[in-house]
Amino acid sequence: MTIPSLHIVRLYIARDGFRWHRKAANGRIVSESGEAYTTKGAALEGLSMSNRDTDNYTFIDDTEEQS
């Protein structure tokens, strides 16, 4: 079994707004938004401020299919 070397950052819609989390290659959540954002733009801004190493993760936008 091959474990991906990149982390995965996922943006999603929760009951209370937009949230994100970052999972390590082993599947464990290593960071999260900690709060819900009222707009997708605000969530993306918080995500980018907390995850500046864009070469080290894959971004998944799960809000597209839920909107």
Automatic annotation (TrEMBL):
| Xref: SUPFAM superfamilies | YegP-like
What InterPro entries has UniProt attached to this entry? YegP-like_sf
Its recorded name reads: Uncharacterized protein DUF1508
